[in-house]
Automatic annotation (TrEMBL):
It comes from Nocardiopsis endophytica. Gene3D superfamilies: 2-enoyl-CoA Hydratase, Chain A, domain 1 (3.90.226.10), Lyase 2-enoyl-coa Hydratase, Chain A, domain 2 (1.10.12.10). This is Crotonase/enoyl-CoA hydratase family protein. CDD domains: crotonase-like (cd06558). PANTHER family: (7AS)-7A-METHYL-1,5-DIOXO-2,3,5,6,7,7A-HEXAHYDRO-1H-INDENE-CARBOXYL-COA HYDROLASE, ENOYL-COA HYDRATASE-RELATED. The lineage of its organism: Bacteria, Bacillati, Actinomycetota, Actinomycetes, Streptosporangiales.
Length: 276
């Protein structure tokens, strides 16, 4: 039985508002500021930027899980203290070293080339919804609340949702979400395709970990190739997109992992993928 992700030791790149843990091929990134409904802070965004870079760089890491502490995902930016420097010297140093750490932490840029699964409980609004939209598989508890509130406050969704949401869900639903700034229940979000599925409250992380383990059991080259082709061909005509898909796909088909997958199927056993 795999230990619960919050029982794994913290990685050194964790910060006061971001707990990063690793269990084999899975890295869990937990926004950990429940007293402020996990509102985004410098401590949180630096930790997340480092965590996503770690997921990208570590060859044996195959998937990341993003969640929030205290039954809350993320209530968006801390409008009062967003620009306040951290009290932690290491975090202040990293904030100075990481170019655009806030955009990287918010998954606006340099998203890992590996899948991210979000486990959403409670509020996931404004910047919280932008984080959800930056992930690939999204599990929501029944009581989760999502929404892009920026227009209601005279603000703009700077995390990229004005572009991403209309590409991910039907246009009319995307425009209603962006232009009205209204709240969405987890069920409503699932109905329009913003989240993958809804589970009982308190069960989002457990289900997200199940999904992460399923992804981690697949061939990493194949998984990353699917993400790469999707991201690189958005907006391309099909004929051009297929050329990109073929170039990437034939590399995967010629890999040792592809041979191992065929052998394992013939031998009726689980494959052992190495990413080669």
């Amino acid at each position: 039985m795999t230990e619960h992700p919050t029982e794994a030791p913290l990685l050194p790149l964790s910060t006061p508002h971001c707990a990063v843990r690793r269990q084999g091929p899975i890295v869990t990134v937990e926004m950990d500021r429940p007293e402020a409904r996990n509102a985004l802070s410098t401590d949180m965004l630096v930790g997340m930027a480092d965590a996503f870079a770690y997921i990208a760089a570590e060859p044996e890491v195959r998937v990341g899980v993003l969640t929030g502490a205290g039954g809350v995902f993320c209530a968006g930016a801390d409008l009062k203290g967003m620009g306040r420097p951290s009290d932690d010297p290491r975090v202040r140093a990293r904030a100075a070293e990481i170019e655009d750490f806030h955009w990287k932490g918010l998954l606006r840029q340099d998203r890992p080339p590996k899948p991210l699964v979000s486990a959403v409980e409670g509020p996931a609004v404004a910047g919280g919804t932008e984080l959800v939209v930056g992930t690939d598989v999204r599990i929501a508890g029944e009581g989760a609340v999502l929404g892009l509130y920026e227009a209601r406050r005279g603000l703009f969704p700077m995390g990229g949702c004005a572009i991403r949401v209309p590409r991910q869900i039907p246009y009319a639903h995307a425009m209603e979400m962006l232009l009205t700034g209204r709240s969405y229940t987890a069920r409503e979000a699932a109905d329009i395709g913003l989240v993958t599925r809804v589970v009982p409250d308190g069960g989002a992380l457990e289900e997200a970990m199940r999904v992460a383990h399923r992804i981690a059991a697949c061939g990493p080259l194949a998984v990353q190739a699917v993400l790469r082709v999707h991201r690189e061909t958005e907006g391309m005509p099909e004929e051009e997109a297929l050329k990109v898909s073929d170039a990437v796909g034939w590399e995967v088909m010629a890999s040792q992992d592809a041979k191992e997958g065929a052998r394992a199927f013939a031998e009726k056993r689980a494959p052992t993928f190495t990413g080669e």
